[in-house]
Amino acid sequence: MMSLESIPIQAFLIVSSALFCIGIWGLLNSRNAVRVLMSIELMLNAVNINLMAFSSYVDNNLIQGQVFTIFVITVAAAEAAVGLAILLSLYRNRVTVDMESFNLLKW
Amino acid sequence: MSIAITTQIICFTVLSLVILIGALGVVLLQSIVYSAFLLGGVFMSVAGLYLLLNASFVAAAQVLVYVGAVNVLIIFAIMLVNKKEDLKPINDIKSRRIISTSICLTLLSLLIRVDLTNIWSLSSPQNSIGEESTIRIGEHLFSDYLLPFEVASVLLLMAMIGAIVLARRDVMNKDISTGLPVDQELIEKSSEPLLTNKN
């Protein structure tokens, strides 16, 4: 067996790719609006894993990827708050969380 | 990092399995409450991966913000909108599933091919600052990333005000359009939906 001195960066990248694709699948296939928001959070986490892996393996002296991850976490928190507020407002008007019934912009 | 490589590999394998199986559970489980709690587990495991990458500050931020705030917010939203409803069947659901699954698998294979075939120019591990990363993040935030840092604070303020404006009930006693008294109770009552089709 080949002896490693650290985990290869490809392992982190594959985990993050798989998590991103699971997030996209959930985004496309969920009927429940809360689950759509959860899928978006999964995708943001996949991007964060990617940034952190590159920050640690490629740029491990000036860790700029970690700063980017902090900003992504900030934006994700704001997105979750506004997204859930929009969801509550939609639920008040439509009395459902079914994504198929939110077709006001359809023409 | 001072942990032996075997321990690191074992930790990485366990965390990755928890992340992937948990994420599949989030999108596939029927009960939305189980999905929300599995999402918390996925967030915790991602924080574990950050610890493996020598980033203790980001791991702490991940636990505080994602598990402590976002996940709790999602569980509150589920509590507020949790209503048993029979979803209307869609006639072309099967073809939609097939198309979306094939798109996701194609994207996954493409990404994994890029991950494996590209030659990454990795820096030498001697340069690693390791556990001093918290100090370095603070220096970045107050020197070359000062403008994004301030913009992020404005963004958080706007998100807070926007969430309050979007989610609050009407502050007036009477509805402007119908003249009926406005429902000020905490629990949602069944009411005539405002935006449904009239025909």
Shape call of chain B: extended
What is the count of DSSP helices of chain A, taking H or I runs of 4+ residues? 3
Which CATH-level-2 architecture of chain A? Answer: Orthogonal Bundle
Mean pLDDT of chain B: 85
Give the N-terminus to C-terminus distance of chain A in angstroms: 60 Å
Helix/strand structural class of chain B? mainly alpha
Describe the 3D structure.
The complex is a heterodimer of chains A (107) and B (199). Chain A is mostly helical. In chain A, 72% of the residues lie in helices and 0% in strands. Chain A contains three helices and no strands. Chain A has helices at residues 9-29, 33-57, 64-94. Chain A is elongated. In chain A, 49% of the residues are buried. Chain B contains six helices and no strands. The longest helix of chain B has 26 residues, at 56-81. Classes of the chains: A mainly alpha (107), B mainly alpha (199). Chains A and B meet through α1, α2 and α3 of A and α1, α2, α3, α4 and α5 of B.
Tags for this model:
heterodimer, A: 107 residues, mainly alpha, Helix Hairpins, 3 helices, 72% helix, elongated, B: 199 residues, 6 helices, 64% helix
Q: In short, what is this structure?
A:
The complex is a heterodimer of chains A (107) and B (199). Chain A has 107 residues and is mainly α.
Question: What does the secondary structure layout of this molecule look like, with pairings?
Answer:
The complex is a heterodimer of chains A (107) and B (199).
Chain A: H1 9-29, H2 33-57, H3 64-94
Helix pairs in contact in A: 1-2, 2-3
Chain B: H1 5-28, H2 32-52, H3 56-81, H4 93-117, H5 133-142, H6 146-167
Helix pairs in contact in B: 1-2, 2-3
